[in-house]
Design brief:
Layout: H1 7-20, H2 29-35, H3 42-56, H4 61-74, H5 83-91
Length: about 90
């Protein structure tokens, strides 16, 4: 992992991960939580990044936007879907 910025190492890791996640039933744990109506760990993950960024004066707009969107999904204010990628990017200023 430490050398993943090298092109050849990246390609090797990408290939290995693609093989392991290529199953039809594979889904990240947060997506499983959303599908099953369980609360996600967004605050413990991306929310934590935002808190730490605030402590050291580093802006974390993408993490903040992701936290807001997933919070809205958790609260059933919006539906989960690919359109939320645009919502996150727009909210983050991209």
């Amino acid at each position: 992992w430490a050398d993943a910025s090298r092109g050849d190492v990246y390609e090797l890791l990408d290939g290995e991960l693609a093989e392991k996640t290529n199953g039809a039933n594979w889904r990240p744990s947060m997506a499983q939580d959303v599908v099953k109506g369980r609360p996600t760990e967004i605050y413990q993950m991306n929310g934590f990044v935002c808190e730490q960024g605030d402590k050291v004066g580093v802006d974390t707009p993408v993490n903040a936007a992701m936290t807001d969107v997933i919070r809205a999904i958790d609260a059933k204010e919006i539906d989960a879907g690919f359109e939320n990628v645009d919502r996150v990017l727009k909210s983050a200023g991209y």
